[in-house]
Specification:
- It is a single chain.
- This protein has helices at about 5-10, 20-60, 85-90, 130-135, 155-160, 195-200, 210-215, 235-245, 260-265, 265-305, 305-315, 320-355, 365, 375-395, 395-400, 405-410, and strands at about 65, 80, 95-110, 115-120, 135-140, 150-155, 170-175, 180-190, 205, 220, 225-230, 255-260.
- About 55% of the residues lie in helices and about 20% in strands.
- The protein folds into two domains: about 5-55 and about 270-410, no CATH class; about 70-255, no CATH class.
- Strands 3-4-9-6-8-7 form a six-stranded mixed beta barrel.
- It is α+β, with helices and mostly antiparallel strands and about 425 residues long.
- It starts with a helix and ends with a helix.
- The protein contains 16 helices and twelve strands.
Amino acid sequence: MNLEFFIARRLDRPSDGGRPGVMVRIAVVAVAVSLAVMILALAVIMGFKREITRKVVGFMAHVEVADLRSLRSLESQPVRLGGELERIIRSVEGFSSLSPYAVRGAIVRTDAGMQGVMLKGVDGQYDWSFLADHLVEGALPRVGDSIRTKDVLIGRAVAGELALAVGDRVEMLFVEPGEAPRRDRFRVSGIYDSGMEEMDRQVAMTDLRNIQRLSGWAPDEVSGYEVRIADFGRVEEFTRRLGRALLYSESEETRNVAALNVRERYPNIFDWLRAHDVNAAVIIIIMTVVALFNMTSALLILVLERTRMIGLLKAMGMTDRSLQRIFLYRALRIIGRGLVWGNLFGLGLLLVQRTFHLVRLDAAGYLLSEVPVAFGWGWWLALNLGVAAVILLLLTVPAYIVSYIRPDESIRYQ
């Protein structure tokens, strides 16, 4: 039998004095609240990263391959479909899929007003899963059929401001320098709402051939390719490899063609997300300090309340190290209860938010309409073990107070 653990377990029973019990409860509550706040902070930050990345990638894919003059502009310089360019993209390690696209700046005009959009054309290879999940009215535009359609998919924010509904005919203006605006009419096939109002206002989807016709391009000319990779965490490495392959290609098809990943295209969004890592670190440090302060106070009081017992055990031959382990075992039991309650409270709030979406956000400022939460077994386990280990390690300092208690004095005055 582990004698120190046995004594610690006996000491953990409620005492008749009441004060140690109060301090134990305060320590448990401090650990529980601190852990719950840490879980909520990390879950929200992870949720922001996951949801915003997923939505931005849903609009723009992982990597764009296009002419250098087109990567950050709506005035596209066409590249050729298929051939050497497509072969190079497919040959890079980590490649998953690709689809051609074409873009054109347009002004949507109705009697209610006007709104500038990026009209994006795609074909049958395009992955509609993201927009299909956020479709709120109507249907996705028909693209890649044998007959070209004039369907267009628009965001709910644009539809609301311009009083558009599914099935309405809408006029779009295409302005070119030095020329009169070109007009074309489309039919609203569907309305989507991704929760990112800024993106919803900008992106409208249609058939690739509509953009080719408006731009005066041949059937094998597009703005570029949207490329998806197997592991988004390696998107920068994939972009470097693809950029190097395009740079050293001697084909005419790859001249002036470059690759741009979504993090480079929207650096302000991803820098904002990285800044949340600092917030998470600050919250974790503050909460750990709060829990440690309360645990230290509780442990000191528990030691002082047991001064006579410590003196008796020392007189019977127990070493200071064994006495310290008794109180560290007791502290570990308190920490364990705090972790259990903290997990129940923190994970319970996460489940409520994920299920009922109670906490809302201003989409204009936060890019999302509700607070997102994400749970991962890896960081959750690391957080629990880390908090317990740090607090227990630092509690070895106040536990040393038992070495200063003299048996003759502690027994004499009791």
